[in-house]
Model the fold of this input.
Amino acid sequence: MRVIIGGAGRVGSELARAMRAETMDVVLIDNDSRAVKNAQSLDALVIHGDITSREALQEAGIGDATVFVAVTDSDDRNLIACALAEDEYKRQNGVSIKQNLLSIGRFRNRNYVDEHQQGHLSRWAAVDYAIDPVDGAIQRLATGLRSSAIEEVIPFGHEAFIIELNVTKDAEQVIYQTLAEASLGIEGGLPLIVGVKRDGEPSTVPNKDFTLMPKDRIAVATSGLGSFSRILTAFGHESIDFPAQPRVAIIGATNVGRRIAENWLRNGAYVTVIERNLNIANNLSGSDIGAHANLDVIHGDFLDRNILTEIGINEHHIAIAALEDDHVSIAAALLANDMGVTRTGLILKDSDLVTVTQRMGITFAVDIKRVAVDNILAHIHTKASGAYAILSNIPDVVGISQTVAKESKFAGKKVGNSGLPEWSRIAFIQRRNTAGFWETLRPAREKTIVEGDRLILFCRPDRVADLEKRFKV
Done:
């Protein structure tokens, strides 16, 4: 399977690295000589060229490609590149070819995303999926702010989450014993661990004989926010006490800041937005959400202690910054923390800063480019029902989704007798209920797998193709 990626920046390079881990044929195209030089270390063909050039697409082998991804910093270039790639693909293979090129573009302009959601973009621009990672980043941030012990939260939809955290020396019920032994000593059983990383050792999908140690980094599968406290306690952290209607300060009425505010308002929070620019503050006040009873829009400098004191920043449970400048966002969140806000959150563009802010005492930070990579990988794996995620702190363990067909050898079998290989682990069973809505089920050994179930499984990247083959009928 050949994947051509337009743009060799961080998102493009991480996509290439993930695809090569699955032994896919990957080609990167970029007209920036520095990006091309940096990408040379990847095990992929790197072409110095323009993704809106037919010649560059021909050199990349577009006629033999299965997927084309455009992730440059320009929405317009990404749009044109997808259309041109589709045209050249059809020119080389014939317009009546049965297998179409899957095209994916990353866009910051919400209009393109709206066009995609309404089903129009694929018709007039040949873009099958328009990726805007902001919504995913907002959801991860809102979930991760529930506890400072949580290092990453990856949502899989329908109340399904993967939580990444460390095992502490206080987790006396689970450390220095096998997972099977630990499960016997915990009421309700041990939370389901789908990945472990230990310093100096490769990541692994643990089996029942695996022994947990202090400082192990683990990925835990769970459904529902209410289970977070139990997971934290089981692995040696303090349980969470999260308010039902939190007071949330949003620093900056940027497009992202506005969408963060909308999300918290939908979930019953009281929201204060602080914006330096009077025109931007007035635009938010005059918008659809401006009249919301739980929203206050304040014009003022979010780095001014007097302003923050005046609005009662210390009475807010959460402060979130998602400004255009990562460094200003960090400064604003740290000031809010210093003035009494116990939970602080960031949406950042620089992955290195995400790690740094955790050491500074920021509760939770989201790397928006990492979210973009996860979203694009999910769409590349549409043949596996769309869910795909790389664990942040546990490299070389990934999650994929597989749908159980009627003819599948897994249909009608219990999880414990499914015959799935030891190197994989079912994290969730997602199933439609009698009302037609999806719900997430815990994969207990006695749970029966039925036709139409969506199984979310974890394994090493080089095992993904093997796992997918087992579900083909």
Summary: Residues 233 and 239 are 6 Å apart (CA to CA). The chain is about 30% helix and 25% strand. The first strand starts at residue 2 and ends at 6.
